[in-house]
Write a structure and sequence with these properties.
The complex is a heterodimer.
Chain A: H1 16-26, E1 33-35, E2 46-49, E3 53-54, H2 61-75, E4 80-81, H3 84-94, H4 104-114, E5 118-132, E6 135-148, E7 154-163, H5 167-172, H6 179-195
Parallel strand pairs in A: 2-4, 2-5, 3-5
Antiparallel strand pairs in A: 1-7, 5-6, 6-7
Helix pairs in contact in A: 2-6, 3-4
Chain B: H1 4-7, H2 11-20, E1 33-36, E2 39-42, E3 63-66, E4 70-71, H3 79-92, E5 96-99, H4 104-109, H5 120-130, E6 134-144, E7 149-158, E8 165-174, H6 190-209, E9 229-232, E10 241-245, E11 249-250, H7 257-272, E12 275-277, H8 280-289, H9 300-310, E13 314-324, E14 334-343, E15 348-358, H10 374-390, H11 395-404
Parallel strand pairs in B: 3-5, 3-6, 4-6, 10-12, 10-13, 11-13
Antiparallel strand pairs in B: 1-2, 6-7, 7-8, 9-15, 13-14, 14-15
Helix pairs in contact in B: 3-6, 7-10
The chains are: A alpha/beta, B alpha/beta.
C-alpha cells in the first residue's frame, strides 16, 4: 500500500496557540484619535465646549472635567473658548434638546447663535476611585469630539484613559495620584492629540 | 468667667505660650492672653481685666457703624456675643464704634435684614443719620466649638453714595496653629480664638485708618497654591481696573462657599492696590434690582449689563467646586475653584484659572507649612490668583526676578 506523504504545509511550524498569542501581543493598540485630513484647523478661532455626558458615578465629575478641559484649551492660546454661561445661554436659544449630544442641525444652529467656529462634546466614561483587590487609585476615561459648525461634521475625535492601578501600586499599595492631577493629565493628553 | 470653668487649669499654660510666641503681625510681641468674661484680653496693659480705654498713642480716629455679623459658616453660631466682642475690640483700639442696640433703630427704620453688604442708599443713610464715616461689615467664616476653630472677615465701606471699600481684612485660627512648647499654646475654647482674631483685625483696621497700615490685610504669598491652569489674555494689562466680583456658583458641600470665596477675592483685590473693587452689597443690590439671575454661570449679555450698570471694567465670577474645613484633628482643609474675568471693552474672557489645594500640600515633616483652616487656605490661593492678574509678566519671569533680588 502506497503511502502518500502528508503535505508539509498542513503541518504547522509553530503551534497555533503560540501564533495566536504572538498575534495578539504584537497587535497595535487601537487608534484613539481621528483627524479630518481635509479640515483646516487653523480656521478655528472660537470654540464652545458643551456639557459632557456623564457615565461615571460622580454626579459632578463631568462638570469638573469640562471645566479643566476648557480651561486648558483656553490656556493653550490656540483658540478662544466661550464662557460656560454663554454656552448655556446659546444652548437655550438654539433650542438644543439634549445639550450633551446635539444633532448635526443643532450644531450648525448653535454655531450661528454663539458665533463659534467649532463645538466640542465629550463623554466621561470613568472618573474617580478604581478598586482592585486591596488596592485603589484614581482614574479617568474620557473621549471628546470636535464638530465644525459650518457643516456639523466631526473633524476631530480622541479619547484617553489616565490613572488607575499600576503594577507598583498593586505591589506596594498607595492611593495613586490625586484626582485633579489625573484629570489635568488626561486633558493635557487630549490637547496634545488635537494639536499634533 | 464663662470660659474658665473648663480652662482655669490651662490659664497659666496659655499665659506662658502666648508670652513665648511672637506677634503674628510682626509688630511688638503681644502681651499674654488671659481669659476674662466673654473672651480673652491682653494682660500687661492698663486695665486688662476691664474694657480698655482708648490707647493714648492712637486716639479716636473715626466713628464707624458696626453692622451685625453674618454667618457664613454653614452651621449655627451665636452672633450677638460676637458682635459685642468685636465692638469692644474696636473700642479698645480707639475707634468710636456704633453697633449692637444703638444700631437697631437705624436697621429697623430702613428695613435692613441683610447685613452682609451695603448698598449705596444704606451707605448714604448711615452717613447722614448716624454720623459715621464708614460701615464695618463682618462675616463669620469659620466656627467650631470642638476642636475650636474661628475665622472672620470684614470690610469697611464708606458711608456715602459712593459706598467704596476703604479697608478689608480678616483672619482665621485653628486651635493648634501655634502649639508652642509642650502644646501649651493649644487653644481649648473658641472664645480664645474669637478674641484673638477680632483683636488682630481691629488692630489692622485702626492702623489703616491712622494711615500707618495697608488698605487690606493680605495673607502670605505661597508658591504652593499658584493656579494649576491659567489663561491670561494679552488684553489684560496693568492699568487700574474697576472690578465687580459676582457671586460664585457653588458646587461644593459647604453652603456658603460661594460667598466666602467671593469675599476673599474682594479682600485680596483691595490688598493688591491697583484695582478699584466694588462693594459686594452694591453689586448684589443691582443684581436684585434688575432681577439678574445667573443659574448656569454668567453669559456675555449679563456681563455687559452688569458692567454698564456698575461702571466696572472687569467682572469676576467663578465656580467653587470644593471648600472643606479640617473638621477633625489631623485632617487638612481643601479648596478648589475656577475663576474667570470678563472685560467690558472686548466682551471677552481675559483671565481664567483653576486652582486646587490642600492644607497639607508639600508638607513633609512635623506639619511645617501646614495651613490649618479653609479660610486661610482660600486666602492664599486667591492671593496667588490676584497677584497673577495684577502682574502682566509671566510667572517664570517673576520667579527669575525674585531670584535675582
Amino acid at each position: 500500500m502506497a503511502m502518500t506523504p502528508r503535505p508539509a504545509a498542513a503541518r504547522p511550524a509553530i503551534p497555533a496557540w503560540i501564533a495566536a498569542a504572538l498575534a495578539l501581543g504584537c497587535a497595535s493598540t487601537p487608534a484613539t484619535k481621528y483627524h479630518d485630513r481635509n479640515m483646516d484647523f487653523g480656521a478655528i478661532k472660537t470654540v464652545a465646549v458643551l456639557p459632557f455626558v456623564n457615565l461615571s458615578k460622580d454626579n459632578l465629575g463631568a462638570d469638573r472635567v469640562r471645566d479643566v478641559f476648557s480651561n486648558m484649551l483656553l490656556a493653550s492660546g490656540a483658540v478662544y473658548v466661550l464662557p460656560q454661561g454663554e454656552v448655556a445661554k446659546g444652548l437655550l436659544r438654539a433650542g438644543v434638546a439634549i445639550p450633551t449630544s446635539p444633532s448635526k442641525e443643532e450644531i450648525v444652529k448653535l454655531g450661528q447663535t454663539l458665533s463659534a467656529d467649532a463645538v466640542i462634546a465629550g463623554t466621561l466614561k470613568e472618573y474617580g476611585e478604581l478598586r482592585a483587590a486591596n488596592t485603589s487609585a484614581n482614574g479617568i476615561s474620557l473621549s471628546v469630539q470636535l464638530f465644525e459648525t459650518s457643516s456639523g461634521k466631526v473633524v476631530w475625535a480622541a479619547s484617553t484613559t489616565k490613572g488607575g492601578i499600576t503594577f507598583v501600586q498593586r505591589l506596594l499599595g498607595g492611593g495613586g495620584e490625586p484626582m485633579n492631577d489625573v484629570t489635568e493629565e488626561a486633558a493635557g493628553e487630549l490637547l496634545r492629540k488635537l494639536f499634533q | 468667667m464663662s470660659c474658665c470653668g473648663s480652662c482655669s487649669s490651662s490659664a497659666l499654660a496659655i499665659w506662658i505660650a502666648a508670652a513665648l510666641s511672637a506677634s503674628p503681625d510682626g509688630g511688638e510681641p503681644p502681651a499674654p492672653l488671659v481669659p476674662i468674661d466673654g473672651g480673652v484680653e491682653r494682660a500687661g496693659r492698663p486695665d486688662a481685666g476691664s474694657p480698655r480705654p482708648a490707647l493714648p498713642a492712637r486716639p479716636a480716629i473715626a466713628r464707624i457703624a458696626v453692622f451685625p455679623p453674618v454667618n457664613l459658616t454653614g452651621g449655627a453660631v451665636e452672633l450677638k456675643p460676637l458682635g459685642n466682642l468685636l465692638q469692644a475690640k474696636l473700642a479698645g483700639e480707639g475707634l468710636d464704634a456704633v453697633g449692637g442696640d444703638a444700631l437697631e433703630p437705624f436697621l429697623s427704620r430702613h428695613r435692613i435684614r441683610y447685613t452682609g453688604g451695603v448698598d449705596r442708599e444704606v451707605a448714604a443713610a448711615a452717613g447722614s443719620e448716624l454720623g459715621v464715616a464708614g460701615i464695618l461689615v463682618t462675616s463669620v467664616d469659620l466656627y467650631q466649638a470642638n476642636p475650636p476653630d474661628f475665622g472672620a472677615s470684614m470690610r469697611l465701606v464708606s458711608a456715602d453714595r459712593k459706598a467704596e471699600i476703604l479697608w478689608a481684612g480678616g483672619a482665621a485660627r485653628a486651635f493648634d496653629d501655634e502649639p508652642g512648647w509642650f502644646d501649651l499654646g493649644i487653644a481649648s475654647t473658641p472664645q480664645l480664638l474669637e478674641a484673638e482674631v477680632f483683636a488682630r483685625t481691629a488692630r489692622a483696621l485702626a492702623a489703616s485708618l491712622s494711615s500707618h497700615g495697608p488698605h487690606a490685610m493680605a495673607c502670605a504669598d505661597d508658591a504652593r497654591f499658584l493656579p494649576k491652569v491659567r489663561f491670561r489674555s494679552a488684553g489684560l494689562d496693568s492699568s487700574e481696573y474697576a472690578i465687580a466680583v459676582l457671586p460664585f456658583q457653588n458646587e461644593s458641600s459647604h453652603p456658603d462657599a460661594d460667598d466666602l470665596l467671593a469675599l476673599q477675592f474682594v479682600r485680596q483685590l483691595r490688598a493688591i492696590g491697583n484695582f478699584r473693587v466694588l462693594e459686594p452689597g452694591v453689586v448684589r443690590s443691582e443684581l436684585l434690582h434688575f432681577r439678574i439671575v445667573m443659574d448656569n454661570g454668567i453669559s456675555l449679555d449679563t456681563a455687559r449689563v452688569i458692567l454698564e450698570l456698575l461702571h466696572a471694567d472687569l467682572v469676576i465670577a467663578g465656580i467653587v467646586r470644593d471648600y472643606r474645613d479640617a473638621l477633625l484633628k489631623g485632617t487638612a482643609p481643601s479648596v478648589e475653584f475656577t475663576v474667570f474675568a470678563l472685560e467690558r471693552q472686548d466682551d471677552e474672557v481675559v483671565w481664567e484659572s483653576t486652582s486646587h489645594g490642600r492644607g497639607d500640600d508639600q508638607v513633609l515633616f512635623f506639619d511645617v507649612g501646614r495651613v490649618s483652616t479653609a479660610p486661610e487656605l482660600a486666602c492664599r490661593m486667591v492671593r496667588a490668583v490676584v497677584r497673577d492678574i495684577a502682574d502682566p509678566r509671566p510667572p517664570a519671569s517673576r520667579a527669575a526676578l525674585r531670584r535675582r533680588r
